[in-house]
Amino acid sequence: MIKLFRFNKVVFVLTGLLLMASHMSAQEMTITGIITDASDGEPLPGVTVAIKNTTSGTITMIDGTYNINANKGDILFYSFIGYTTQEVTLEDQTTINIALESEVIGMDEVVIIGYGVQRKEDKTGAVAQVTSEELVRGAIQDPVQSIQGKTAGVSVTKTGGDPNGGFSVKIRGASGFDSNTQPLYVIDGVPGVDPTTVAPEDIETFNVLKDAASTAIYGSQGANGVVIITTKRGSIDNSTVNVNMSWSMDNVANRLDMLSATEMRSHYVSTGQESLDGGASTDWQDEIFRTGMTHNYNVNFSGGNDKSTYYASLTNTNWEGVMKGTGKERTIGKVNLMHKGLEDKLTLSASLSMTIESNDYESYDGYDKDDILYQAYSRNPTDPVYNEDGSYYQTDREFNYENPLSVIDNIDNLRDAKRYFGNFKADYDFAEGLKGSVNLGYTRDDSESTYFRPMDVYSQPNDGYARKGYDNTSKSLIEATLNYVKTFNADHNLNAIGGYSWQETNYNGFYAQGSNPASPHMGADNLGGMQLVNYGDVGSWRGMSRLIGYFGRAQYNYKHKYYLSASVRADGSTKFGENNRWGVFPTLAGGWTLSQEEFMQTIDWLDNLKLRVSYGVSGNQNIGEYRSQILYQTDGLVTNPETGLPVLSFRPAWNSNPDLKWETTAETNVGFDFAMFNSRLSGSFEYYYKKTTDLLGAYQVPVPPNLAQTTFANSGELQNSGVELNLQYFIIDTKDFQWKTNFNVSHNKQVMLELGEYAPDDGIRKEGFLSGRGLIGNNNYVTGVIVDEALGSFYLPEYRGLNDEGKFLYTSSTGGVTSELSDAQRYVAGSPLPDVEFGWSNSLTYRKNWTLDFTFRSMIGNEVYNATTMFFDDPSLLGGLNALPEAKDWAQLGRTTGPAVADIYVEDASFIRLDYLALGYNLRPKNDGWLENVRFTLSGNNLFVVTGYSGVDPEASLDGVAFGIDQYNVYPKTRSFAFGVSATF
Domains in the chain, ordered, with CATH? Predict the structure, then answer.
């Protein structure tokens, strides 16, 4: 049978039901027994055993046993979430053993929603859950990576494989453009917590709230979706110790196909440039890349009794990047505690965690002297790495031509961070069904950055440079809620909650820097040894924002057949203008379980069919602090005409705007949940339409009449609509072999409806500006924000060939052709957004010992602007630098144009990727000793990708306004193989 809610003998205890009284009379007797799962005979702990129409009851122990005092004629009922309730009329028997049958339609799933939980069958919004057993494992770099491809409508992407880089998460497309489009993360009830402060081993579930009806309870923070992460807790009467260890190797999955030394020499001979030969044969990608190693160690302890539970863990992970000089080490300590008191009316719970992280960076985001990838790709392969004396080989072939190994080995670019998280919650049962809660949360992020470059790194002498910086951000939370749950006449079920939320964020920081160190060995820890310190070499800052909210929600259902829910939240934020501090975010949702109607009872193969409809409004306040007020900043030193002395000048950073207000997203969602063939096949279908208005952004304005060139305002409307399908199918479900498959597919269409009051004169908001060797001017942009098009659309001139001088020709805006980019007619040449995304996950189990898991993920219809090819197919590079083979082809055609923006560099980047493959074996000792289980796992991540894209990797991050641009300064994606051992004691 299907079991979706099992914690491997760890109790999910129904709180609030204890043995209240002894049901005593002359005929009283003690009933004992054991409750098991009908599908496999395993004992079920935490099952409610109660006497009907009384307050007498108990719960089963860890081994499924129970005892209860009752009288002849009493009716005992046995209930547990996810199982069909059974009733037994007591006669003379004193031993009653019960085998509970699993309910259909996955009713055992409990999903986490805002400020509460509900059974999956009762949901009216678009909520998806991924449990710990379903997460992607192996060599993952970020907890959110573990839900990649696991649920429809959720895009988890990352450009490259830098261990210090983060993932981009978009839920049903972007709901804004200048603002942060990442979802709100809520960890153990505290919003705004960084998910990287949670170890993957500590995560119990991810719950993704996708539609506005689900997210609006978070008001101004919910427009981009909400991801709720719950961590593991202790269990009653079951003390366990788990040890998890894994080791992985990472290699560059695909390299850029630059010319080799042999190919360069052949070109030099054919063109008479043999003097450019440096005399060596160097693969510079071999020199900067390596096999990366990752080590992960986790130990956790859990246990407790009916009064108190605990969970504690310690995790240490060390990532060694595939690019030399890059790496990260992170240590996370976490404790979750729970205690009941005052006759079990009071429940106290606390979560404490601390994260210590060290980062080692290398620069690769441009074409400067210290940008490793650019220097390695462009460096001549005939140049050696070292001189004969072991020093770094340096030469001046071109401007900013540096040895990347010298940069890696000599420059320090480090960061040390400490993150603290504390959460304390008190729940008190005032009366039957009435519970009050107070939730306190505090997070603090401290980071210290260090950069030091000695004077002898580059080919030409430089002054050297050192910098130290410190950043601190703290967030405080106070929330109070009152929750009322009541069932009337056995058919009418009501769940209502009201609450208050107060959040405050404070941040501050400073930096100091200087150049010309007195010694190359002093580093950045003695800035007093810097001999050159100028104006602007010292700076500091401080800021604060506050958010206050009032919210309420009521959920009603009749016989779990007809559902109605509504919520409203009012938020006030210091980020907005004095005329628009408050925003109101309402929702309304309904559901109808059609399969419970009489006219559906003749359809034997259909187990469940439920219709859901919802409408909601959520908001976005991610624009930064003080944007509605005029802010003055320093503008350098000027000479006082009266005294002739230097004085500090100030200028406005931006204009005031007292009308700055919330960005709002209104969304309609229609969904179906279904299960058939005894729940062998189940799933959901969603259609949504959402419209985001009053888009927050920084807009350019004329001076005068304005004081500054920038005004933060609301302007424009954006639309997203789409469909999502989630399927789960138990292909094989026998005693010895099980095969479960999950498939999800989604389609999102995005349209910019209008740019609003601050639209540019030509109607095109230019984005995606490229910079690099050979690019000059302000026309080198590749994307545009355009009405009736999606964000990130490529807005490019049409390439028409070469003229007699070897220059690129474009379609002209006045007709004909032109070689001037500024005169070219541009058009929408493609979009980086996929037409379809899908994920396919499989889990196979043989005799509960062998397991095989694999996950495929795909994007179809997405396009990429291959800026790497645009820069490195330039034939002029062959005069001393390295290039792609295409540069030789262009040279034969007589091309004289350097890197140039054109539509020929847009490529179809559709792909299908084997994200994860894992083979596992559970070694279960047959004795009842101290060792419960040992699991061995061999896994691989990013094993292969099928694509027609010619670049290194077809997948680009989908974050921001300009994305889908594959420029050479992208950390290469890795292929990983890992071996893991887990033991349970």
Answer: 1-103 (2.60.40.1120), 110-231 (2.170.130.10)
